[in-house]
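Aim 2 progress update. The chain analyzed this quarter is reproduced below.
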Amino acid sequence: MAGTGVFAEIIDGDVYKYYVDGEWKTSSSGKSVAIVNPTTRKTQYKVQACTQEEVNKVMEIAKVAQKAWAKTPLWKRAELLHKAAAILKEQKAPVAECLVKEIAKPAKDAVAEVVRSGDLISYCAEEGVRILGEGKFLLSDSFPGNERSKYCLTSKVPLGIVLAIPPFNYPVNLAVSKIGPALIAGNSLVLKPPTQGAVAALHMVHCFHLAGFPKGLINCITGKGSEIGDFLTLHPGVNCISFTGGDTGIAISKKAGMIPLQMELGGKDACIVLEDADLDLVASNIVKGGFSYSGQRCTAVKVVLVMESVADAVVEKTKAKMAKLTVGTPENDCDITPVVSESSANFIQGLVMDAKQKGATFCQEYKREDNLIWPLLLDQVRPDMRIAWEEPFGPVLPVIRINSVEEGIHHCNASNFGLQGCVFTKDINKAIMISDAMETGTVQINSAPARGPDHFPFQGLKDSGIGSQGITNSINMMTKIKSTVINLPAPSYTMG
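Predicted structure tokens:
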């Protein structure tokens, strides 16, 4: 159970503590932040409302710890990461329990997220040893006008303190996707978890604590974004920010100054369907891509752009598969569970009502009970409807009928988002040409968008973000190149 057994020390009464300097502590503010269960709409957990003074203290401690960690042998860093991964997977049940209650993630998906996170940490340890264990040796006479009188040795060194801010929908997996690369590269880490998902993140951090990482190296601070959000992201002690979320990331990027940024800020992932596509495959992937975890994924299919000649068939096949989706509570492993908050449900409803007013065809009856919204396919959507462009982050999917490939590409590229997209066709030549034309960070051919596997590059264009994720890219991003040049008194030629 959450907050019991090996996790007993992370809670004080009914309020979870924050983590700094290798200890679980209570905030001096005496205040807490409530976490509302999306299913019951009642307070499920409480976390510390940390102060700006406590943020300052965390940064001081993290800076000192990082200097010592940077001197720790690479194999030792990897060894500790492997240990943390094993503990996290052993403790998957209580961590998954938090995901079910905090963000209404279906039980089986919650367990899968924790296991996947353990695998990510282990892969990160292996990849870090490989790419950080080798440097470069350059010779000056490879550039015109130079003799071989200079030897340049380059290696990767840590940035310092990495501030990691994951989103509510994957508060464990998207946290470790930042923590793992930061630690293997020799950085210290300050984690600011989302409010919804904070307790799952605190349990995950305790697994790192149990693995025996040095004090002060990993810190997790909770609180209201309005009180410590800007203070964290603008803190002079921060040397790198890795953020996954929404519009807040754009504001952070504008204020952050001269530090490396890794931002993934959502998407309006388009699914382009050509006449020659396997329509059963298309329907399966529309349902999987559009409705898994109730559509609350940045890589969810957000708009279907289907050729008119096959649109009726695609809609009918998709409706048939949607009819098999189960709707209910996450504890019962239902496919469609309550969205994360009442405000999210209200936003989704606003998009639906706008589409209704403007004449969209409802393939199912719109149904909502509190935060639970039944899956809905909207046909005959036009570009003047909000849902054609805005990201619902819920189980509502628009279908726009197109008369040419160019029309589909134009709609995709007219979006201010550019995270992922997909194209369904049996013609690989068309698929490649369409992929090249789509202004998105990734294009999937004959499959729904997906972030993983976690070692694949993952990046967005335009308002979908800056920088690239994926284990290797994150390690490289969280380091900088250090060069040492040896100047010889005379040119030297091997075996000369």
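The chain has a mean pLDDT of 97. The CA atoms of residues 55 and 232 lie 7 Å apart. These observations will guide the mutagenesis experiments scheduled for the next reporting period.
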